[in-house]
Amino acid sequence: MRPLLAVSTAIDWLNEKVGNVCNILVLAACMVSAVNAMIRYAFSYSSNSWLETQWYMFAVIVMFGSSYTFKRNEHVRVEILYLMLSERGQLWLDLIGTLVFLVPACLLLSYLSWAMFHNSFIIGEMSNNAGGLVRWPIKFVLPAGFFMVALQGVSEAIKRAAALRGEVTIDAKYERPTQ
């Protein structure tokens, strides 16, 4: 189980770094939005590339921030049944739900969205808007984001399996295994 916990720690580290970038992007998106609005109203000038930059940052924040949110256990959860279970029951529910639903769904969505990115990359798709941006890089965010959530799901499953074996305990706030 130790090698698997090392893999889990590496995935957690990666998603923590990605989450830090997303946190910075939130501020950057707000700044781009504010500056773009000020320039538009003060100088009657606007650029589609700045609007699309905001959209691109928002897409990155949502798609990559979801794995970070999952890692920190701040995701939406239906807790009616969950809270009625013992700690061991919660671990089993998390483990089964992650392995049966979350990971397969995320991998399927990543696979299905790959073709959209690939086609866009092959043709060098550009925005239809004047002054718009290249589209294929942002289309890559969709399969990559789903893959990152699936990776975090694997990490969470490893931690739950280790906790069920009594090898670690789970810190409820940040989902970190503790020895």
From TrEMBL:
<feature type="transmembrane region" description="Helical">
    <location>
        <begin position="91"/>
        <end position="116"/>
    </location>
</feature>
<keyword id="KW-0762">Sugar transport</keyword>
<keyword id="KW-0813">Transport</keyword>
<comment type="function">
    <text>Part of the tripartite ATP-independent periplasmic (TRAP) transport system.</text>
</comment>
<protein>
    <recommendedName>
        <fullName>TRAP transporter small permease protein</fullName>
    </recommendedName>
</protein>
<dbReference type="Pfam" id="PF04290">
    <property type="entry name" value="DctQ"/>
</dbReference>
<keyword id="KW-1003">Cell membrane</keyword>
<keyword id="KW-1133">Transmembrane helix</keyword>
<keyword id="KW-0812">Transmembrane</keyword>
<dbReference type="InterPro" id="IPR007387">
    <property type="entry name" value="TRAP_DctQ"/>
</dbReference>
<dbReference type="GO" id="GO:0005886">
    <property type="term" value="C:plasma membrane"/>
</dbReference>
<keyword id="KW-0472">Membrane</keyword>
<dbReference type="InterPro" id="IPR055348">
    <property type="entry name" value="DctQ"/>
</dbReference>
<feature type="transmembrane region" description="Helical">
    <location>
        <begin position="136"/>
        <end position="155"/>
    </location>
</feature>
<feature type="transmembrane region" description="Helical">
    <location>
        <begin position="21"/>
        <end position="43"/>
    </location>
</feature>
<feature type="domain" description="Tripartite ATP-independent periplasmic transporters DctQ component">
    <location>
        <begin position="30"/>
        <end position="161"/>
    </location>
</feature>
<comment type="similarity">
    <text>Belongs to the TRAP transporter small permease family.</text>
</comment>
<keyword id="KW-0997">Cell inner membrane</keyword>
<feature type="transmembrane region" description="Helical">
    <location>
        <begin position="55"/>
        <end position="70"/>
    </location>
</feature>
<comment type="subunit">
    <text>The complex comprises the extracytoplasmic solute receptor protein and the two transmembrane proteins.</text>
</comment>
<dbReference type="GO" id="GO:0022857">
    <property type="term" value="F:transmembrane transporter activity"/>
</dbReference>
